[in-house]
Structures are given as C-alpha cells and as structure tokens.
C-alpha cells in the first residue's frame, strides 16, 4: 500500500487536519468575529491553512482521529453550494510498476502506481455528514452516494478510472522523466492537462511556494498532497529467468476541453478537442527501458452529431468550412508539435459513410494547408483485425522515422528517442482507435527489439502485451460509453469539479512572505560564473588525437565553472534505423571531454547532462562543488532534416537553472548548401518555435541563451576572392558578405542575438588531416559555418576563437568564453530572516485577540520592532519600498496609448552622430540600455 496519512477532525471551531510523516496541515473556514460583516459572503470562500505542531494536535482532545479506513492522500479543496470540503483518497489498489530492478529476491519495483477505489469529502463547515463517514456500512455508503453535496464527485473519483503515484510522474511520458521524483519535481514538471484534481490543488501549490524552504521540504515528505490522472494503468510481469520483462500501459485522458473532456464533440475556438487520450506502452527488462507513445482524439474540425431515424444510426453535420476552421486547427497542431515533435495524422473512416467521407476530405484540406501528413483509411474493424499488415504498410515511413524511446539501464545512457507521434481519430469509435494503437505497438516492439541483442519477444510476452491492451480497451470504452449515455449528468459533475474556486489564507506566512520580498536585498546577491562553450562538426569520426587546443585554448588562461560542448555529425545515420543513435559514440565523447577537463583542472568536474539526436550531441559538465546550485535540468530535441522527418539535421536543447538564473543552450545542425538560406532560416524558426520544456517553457523564456552549432551559412563571394582575403586576414570584408551576418542585420534569423567579432579564418571546408581548404572536385568556398551566438543582458562574451591545429575533420572546432552574472538566494540568510520575523511577530500577536490579530496581519506596513534595525532599515530596497508606498503606477500601455508619450505623438529619437565617420561599437551589448562603462556606444569607422 502507498504511504498512508492520518486524518483528524477538530471541534470548536471545526477544522480538518491531514497528517503525514509528522507534518500536520490544518484546514479551517475563515471566520470573522461576531458583529463584523463578512465581505466575502457571496464571493470565493476563504479557507485558513496552517501547519500545527504535534503538541497542538494532541492537546485537550480538541482533535479526534478518523480511524475507520486508510487514507492515501488528499485530492484538495472544493467549494459546493456555499460549503467547502476536503477530498481524501480512502481506498487504493496497487496496479503498476513501470520500472524495476532484479534482486536476489526477484523483481523489486522502483515505483508504484495505485488505482483509486474510493474517496471521501469532509466538510469544513459542519458535522452533518460525519456519521455517514465515521460509521462505515452499506447503508451509510448509499447515503453518502446520494445525499452528500459531493456525492457526484465521490462517484466520479471512485469509478475505477483514476490513478496516482507518490514516486512516479504519471502525467508525463517516461522519456520526459528526470532522475528525482519528489513533490517539487512533480509540481514543476507535471503536465497539468492530464491532472484531474488540478483545480482542487491550485491554491495549495501556491501556498507551498510561499512557505520557507525547511517547512516546504517537511510538507513535501509528508505525502499529503496527491495528483490523479484518469484513464487506465496496469503492469503485467512476464517472468522468464534472464529474459524477465514487464509491459505497462498508461492511458491518460486530457482535461484540456474540461467539461466536454469525454464528449462526442469537435474542435473549440481555442484549438482544444474532446476525447484526447495519450497512451504510452512501457517495456522494462533487466537491461533497458523502452517506451512508445500514441495519441487518439476526436476529429479536430467544427461538427455536431445528429441522431438519425435509422436504428443505431448517427450522422454528423459540419458547422464551419475550412476558412473558418484553419486558425483553431493550426493552434491545436502547434500545441501537439511543441510537445511531441512531428505529428502524422491517421484518420479512420467507416466504409461507405458519406458523412464521414465529407469530414475526411475537410480534415485533409486543413491538414495539407498546415503542412501535415494525413492518411485516411477506410478499413473496417474486421480487416484491421485479420490483416494488420495492410495498415502497417501505410504507416511504415512514420514508424521508422519517429523512432522510439530506449534507455540502457546498466550504461545509464539514452540510445533512442521518439521524435514524432501518430494522432489517430475515428468518428464515434473508441474501439477502432485502440485496435490501431495495439497493432502499431506490437509492430514497434518487434522492430525495436530486433536491434537489441539482450531481449527476445517471446510468445508469453506477446500474450501479456495483447491482454493488457484488451483491458485498456475495455476500460476506456466503458468510460466513454457511460459518458455518452448521460452527457448532461456528467457535464454537471465536471462543472462542479472544474469551476470550483477556493482562496487559501495563511495569515502569518503570507504576512512574512510579503515582507520578505521587500527585504529581498538582504538575502540575495550577484556572483559571476564562466561558461566555456564549444561546437565541432567531427565528420562522423571518433579520432584519438588530442583536443586540448580546443577545450583549453592558449588565450583562455583560467578554468571555467562549466563546459558545454556541442558536436555535429557524431554518427552517420543509416536509413531504416529504429533506434537511431549509437550509444558508443556518446559515451566516447563524454569520457574523452570529461577526462581531459579533470586532468587539467584542480577541481573535480562531473557530467551534469547530455543528450543526442541523430548526429547532434550536447554535453554539460560542471564543477562538482557547484552541483547543488544547478536545478531543473531538462532537455528537448527537434528534427529538421527532410521537412522535420529525419534526424540528420536538427537541434538538441538544454534548460537549467543556475542559482536563480535560467539558461537555455542549443546545439544545432542546419541545412547545408550555398543557396539554402531560406531553408536555414526555416530550420531556425522551427527549432525556436518547437523546442519546449516543462510548463510550456520556451527558448525565449530564459534569462540567458547560448546557441551554437554548424549553422552552415556561407560567404557570398567568389572562391578565389574568399581565399585571397583569408590569406591577407581581411576577415571584416569577408564578414560583410557572410550570410548569417546579413540575416541577423536584416532581423530575419536569430533576431536580438549577439555574436562577438570574428577574428579567426573560416572553419570549413578543409581537406581532412591537412590545413588546406577544399581541393576536391567541388572546391567548396570556405565559410564560417560553425558559430556561437548569445542572448541575454547577464551574459558577456570575452573570447571567440577556433582551434586551427585540430585537423582530423573537414571543420575546425570553435569556442567561446562567457561571463555570466547570477542571482543567488542565500537560503541560510533567508531562513534566518524568516525566523526573526516569525519570532518577532508571534510575540506581538501573543496578547491580541483574534480580531486584533487579523487586523495586524492584514496591515501591509512592515513591522520589524526588535529586529536588527541597522541591517534592515538602511537597506536601499526598504527605503525604496517606503518611498513608493501610496504611489500608483499609470495604467498599462497598449499599441494605442503609451503612458510615456504625451498627446498620442510618435516617438522621435535624435542622435547627434555622423554616420559617415562613426558606427555602433560591435564590442558592446546590442541592447543600448545595458550600461557598459568599458566600451563607448560609437567608434570611428
């Protein structure tokens, strides 16, 4: 059984306490003193939340424990008919363990998934329903299911379709999982669209973000808060000695269309659809973890169902044409592409159905306008069952090019990643969609395991695979059928669930947190850090020669704090590979670079993260002493080869937080060829638009961005002239004709990015093993194909060069050194200040009654009586806060009215500079508002 919690009921005033691992969290309705008008009577109900000690919990018998069942966690708070209730999981069954390890005692699960069997809702207002909850009987259960205000929600959450885990992020596919699985990781990374109690936990998560670090960790370890998904989860174990394996299915029903989540309904104006299910198959053996994901959802067009006079007949009517459908259609698929990569549509049509044929044609029209691949299939369920090869023939290209996720447990490396997904739709037929997913799943497993020498697909494994898919189909069909039988009833239930709003009020913590923000300068400071970044197209070679000149160039004297290395063409991809990355190559380069850094440095470095897409490899190495300051490490990839279908070109991206500063690093290989400027521009836009991290974090959302790689931009001059200018080292003349430089000046590719002046010769193309530019029949024009760009005010580039002595490739490696200003939160000082504020304020509250306490804590003025006056009052931030009090900011500006411009006039800026004799200083930050005392804004031409 999962880690259980305890539940207590408090009397006078009524409250409910959830307790786990010694942490006690109290919930109580906010009450004003008698005779005081409650202003929020008709608004969002307010609940007081606070942590109480064990002594408080057990004193004077004020709280009594509910002992008649085992509680597995809370669902959150919900408001119904003016009352507030705490939802609690009161029954659960262990059904899954996607990952495990083999021990002398057999298979030992690494995590556990539980099915919700029962839930209860405890009132924060009265004890009217306590008798039914405290005395478990069939009669009382019936009364709870019919008379309790939350009866419909109790039935919903207890219908066998909800699942939770305390140590596994059920909302994300396995490939997106990091190593830690604590509550902080789950909250930061979970996909809210698949969480079916997110509306009940929103305020709790906000409250958690405001409490001090020590209390937050205490809360996280309590196991009180639980997140549930809806759909189907189960693991079947196939025990076969050394060939032991397990197959797990996790089907997640999305809440993106909220009240219509399971309806027979089309597209909404904001691009959302009903019936959206993400199904993942996870196969685990003693040596590797493999997973594959597919999507099924309603057809994303505007249509409605018309009941036919014919028995069992249902017709569809299209309500909007392609012109009015395209924009929300595009929004829907932009969202999918951002999360899953390439999307290929499979639309299943009932044979001889005119209405479905009309839908299919409109679907195809919108898909082609969006540039999506769509396959309309008119196979009946009987044909799909008897002749699955006919379907697989149509999907063969997608199956090979999307790949699959694969992780080597013993080596600790990823050697396959799924970079695309099938989106399957069938009008009014869940069974048919799942049948197709099962066929594809079996084929994927057989193809992928053919490339693995340590696992055989046995008949018992196939039997387990088919059985678990059958169960998945049964439960999902049952669920959607129940919803379609009585959609109005379920609509009312979903309205209660998704429309509920609660305001949590923790007076003391909120007061302290508000004032801590004003004292921020007392526990934050800035520090510098250096980043060494390098990019190298190695031409598919794992040369044994030294790379010291690149990683430790002569003009960089000190050891950097972090080394981030991007490589291109680390492998030559073979057509038809399912798992398209050679794990040996990745290991080779990781070991080679890390050993070199540790050999030269007197501080130990460790590999923080690495990832590979086809021939692009990105590696991140950091001083071990700084390990704890780097958090939220995530990666993503995007294919751009052959229109996004192949990984011979593309990008690998890294996102992380260093102290309180966010970084994004991208290594990319763009389209080749002198004339392919537009394709490179499209590659840039595709990568910039589609790279996504958790919480929909995009590249542009980071404080600092470094983008490097083989960009393949060329020089628009004749071969002879380029080579002549290289000999005379007139690089500035070459740079004027550089394609990337021209694109950046025009604001096309990489707008607002910065590149330090280039003072080294073009890095491509050389005769391998020599210092001579290309002498082959093609005689390619030398070019700076290998580049490093940056964006962000906190970055300052101080070195930019290439290692001309490394000769084994037809490229030369390029490097850059950056200095970064990091914002650091001193958690010790912050905790100390919190403690001072807490002790001081509790002393001031000690002699006050409840009304006076409320008035004190609602006062926005900072009360620091008795604290270190000199340390706080003299703080510039406190003085600034005091000066700004009672001053209102002007209304937000808009395109029509800008508050800093009077009378609606246009902005005019006059610069007293002669452009004939002066130019902008290229050594400065491109943002003119960033102060730079070292470099003037203009320099003589």
TrEMBL record:
> Which UniProt keywords are present, listed alphabetically?
Cytoplasm, Endocytosis, Hydrolase, Protein transport, Transport
Quote the SUPFAM superfamilies the UniProt record gives.
DNase I-like
Naturally occurring in which organism (per UniProt): Kazachstania africana (strain ATCC 22294 / BCRC 22015 / CBS 2517 / CECT 1963 / NBRC 1671 / NRRL Y-8276) (Yeast)
User: What is the name of this protein?
Assistant: phosphoinositide 5-phosphatase
A GO molecular function term, named singly, is: phosphatidylinositol-3,5-bisphosphate 5-phosphatase activity
| Stretches assigned to the SAC domain | 153-482
InterPro entries to which the protein is assigned, alphabetical: Endo/exonu/phosph_ase_sf, IP5, IPPc, SAC_dom
Root EC class: hydrolase
Query: Its Enzyme Commission number?
Result: 3.1.3.36
What Pfam family is a match for this entry? Exo_endo_phos2
**Which gene holds the coding sequence for this protein?**
KAFR0K01150
Q: Which GO terms describe its cellular component?
A: cytoplasm; membrane
Lineage, top-rank taxon, reads Eukaryota
Q: Where in the cell is it found?
A: Cytoplasm
Give the source lineage, highest ranks first: Eukaryota, Fungi, Dikarya, Ascomycota, Saccharomycotina
Q: Which family does it belong to?
A: In the central section; belongs to the inositol 1,4,5-trisphosphate 5-phosphatase family.
Biological processes, Gene Ontology terms: endocytosis; phosphatidylinositol dephosphorylation; protein transport
């Amino acid at each position: 059984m999962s880690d259980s919690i305890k539940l207590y009921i408090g009397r006078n005033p009524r409250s409910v306490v959830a307790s786990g691992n010694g942490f006690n969290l109290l919930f109580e309705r906010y009450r004003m003193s008698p005779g005081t008008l409650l202003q929020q009577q008709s608004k969002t109900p307010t609940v007081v939340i606070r942590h109480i000690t064990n002594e408080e919990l057990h004193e004077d018998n004020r709280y009594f424990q509910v002992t008649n069942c085992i509680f597995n966690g809370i669902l959150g708070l919900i408001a119904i008919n003016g009352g507030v209730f705490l939802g609690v999981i009161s029954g659960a069954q262990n059904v899954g363990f996607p990952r495990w390890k083999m021990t002398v005692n057999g298979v030992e699960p690494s995590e556990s998934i539980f099915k919700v069997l029962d839930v209860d809702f405890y009132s924060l207002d009265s004890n009217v329903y306590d008798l039914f909850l405290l005395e478990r009987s069939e009669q009382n259960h019936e009364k709870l299911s019919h008379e309790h205000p939350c009866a419909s929600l109790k039935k919903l959450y207890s219908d066998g379709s909800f699942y939770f885990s305390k140590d596994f992020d059920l909302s994300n596919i396995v490939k997106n999982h990091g190593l830690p699985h604590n509550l902080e990781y789950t909250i930061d990374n979970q996909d809210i669209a698949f969480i079916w109690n997110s509306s009940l936990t929103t305020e709790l998560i906000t409250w958690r973000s405001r409490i001090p670090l020590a209390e937050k960790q205490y809360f996280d370890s309590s196991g009180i808060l639980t997140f549930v998904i809806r759909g189907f989860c189960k693991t079947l174990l196939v025990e076969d000695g050394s060939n032991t394996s397990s197959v797990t299915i996790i089907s997640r029903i999305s809440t993106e269309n909220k009240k219509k989540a399971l309806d027979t309904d089309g597209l909404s104006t904001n691009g959302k659809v009903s019936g959206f299910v993400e199904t993942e198959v996870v196969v685990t053996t003693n040596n590797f973890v493999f997973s594959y994901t597919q999507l099924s959802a309603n057809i994303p067009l505007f249509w409605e169902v018309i009941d036919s006079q014919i028995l069992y007949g249902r017709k569809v009517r299209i309500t909007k044409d392609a012109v009015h459908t395209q924009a929300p259609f595009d929004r829907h698929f932009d969202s999918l592409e951002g999360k899953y990569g390439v999307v290929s549509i499979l639309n299943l049509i009932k044979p001889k159905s005119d209405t479905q044929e009309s839908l299919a044609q409109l679907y195809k029209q919108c898909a082609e306008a969006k540039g999506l691949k769509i396959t309309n299939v008119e196979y009946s369920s009987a044909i799909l069952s008897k002749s699955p090869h006919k379907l697989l023939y149509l999907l063969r290209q997608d199956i090979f090019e999307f790949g699959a996720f694969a992780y080597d447990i013993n080596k600790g490396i990823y050697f396959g990643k799924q970079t695309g997904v099938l989106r399957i739709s069938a009008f009014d037929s869940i069974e048919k969609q799942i049948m197709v997913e099962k066929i594809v799943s079996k084929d994927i497993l057989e193809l992928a395991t053919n490339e693995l020498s340590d696992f055989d697909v046995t008949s018992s494994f196939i039997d387990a695979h088919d059985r678990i898919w059958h169960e998945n189909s049964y439960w999902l069909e049952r669920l959607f059928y129940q919803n379609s039988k009585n959609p109005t009833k379920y609509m009312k239930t979903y309205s209660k669930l998704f429309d509920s709003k609660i305001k949590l009020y923790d007076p003391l913590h909120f007061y302290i947190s508000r004032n801590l923000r004003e004292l921020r300068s007392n526990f934050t400071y800035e520090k510098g850090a250096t980043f060494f970044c390098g990019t190298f197209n190695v031409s598919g070679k794992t040369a044994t020669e030294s790379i010291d000149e690149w990683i430790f160039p002569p003009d960089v004297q000190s050891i950097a704090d972090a080394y981030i290395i991007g490589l291109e063409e680390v492998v030559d991809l073979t057509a038809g590979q399912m798992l398209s990355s050679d794990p040996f190559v990745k290991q080779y380069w990781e070991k080679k670079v890390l050993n070199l850094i540790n050999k030269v440095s007197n501080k130990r470095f460790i590999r923080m993260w690495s990832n590979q897409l086809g021939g692009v490899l990105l590696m991140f190495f950091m001083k071990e002493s700084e390990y704890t300051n780097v958090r939220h490490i995530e990666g993503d990839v995007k294919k751009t080869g052959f229109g996004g279908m192949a990984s011979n070109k593309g990008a690998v991206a890294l996102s992380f937080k260093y102290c309180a500063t966010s970084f994004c690093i991208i290594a990319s290989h763009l389209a080749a060829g002198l004339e392919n400027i537009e394709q490179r521009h499209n590659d840039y836009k595709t990568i910039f638009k589609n790279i996504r991290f958790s919480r929909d974090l995009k590249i542009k959302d980071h404080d600092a961005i470094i983008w490097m790689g083989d960009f393949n931009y060329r020089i628009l001059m004749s071969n002879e002239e380029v080579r002549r200018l290289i000999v005379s080292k007139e690089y500035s003349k070459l740079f004027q004709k550089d394609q990337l430089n021209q694109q950046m000046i025009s604001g096309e590719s990489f707008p607002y990015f910065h590149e330090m002046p280039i003072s080294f010769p073009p890095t491509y193309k050389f005769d391998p093993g020599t210092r001579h530019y290309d002498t082959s029949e093609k005689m390619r024009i030398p070019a700076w194909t290998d580049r490093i760009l940056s964006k962000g005010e906190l970055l300052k580039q101080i070195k930019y060069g290439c290692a001309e002595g490394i000769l084994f490739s037809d490229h030369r490696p390029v490097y850059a050194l950056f200095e970064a200003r990091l914002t650091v939160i001193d958690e010790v000082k912050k905790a100390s200040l919190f403690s001072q504020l807490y002790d001081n304020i509790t002393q001031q509250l000690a002699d006050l009654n409840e009304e006076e306490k409320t008035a004190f804590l609602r006062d926005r003025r900072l009360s620091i009586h008795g604290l270190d006056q000199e340390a706080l009052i003299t703080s510039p931030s406190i003085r600034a806060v005091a000066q700004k009090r009672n001053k209102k900011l002007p209304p937000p500006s808009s395109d029509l009215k800008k508050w800093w411009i009077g009378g609606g006039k246009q902005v005019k800026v006059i610069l007293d500079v002669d452009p004939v004799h002066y130019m902008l200083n290229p050594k400065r930050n491109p943002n003119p508002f960033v102060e730079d005392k070292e470099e003037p804004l203009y320099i003589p031409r």
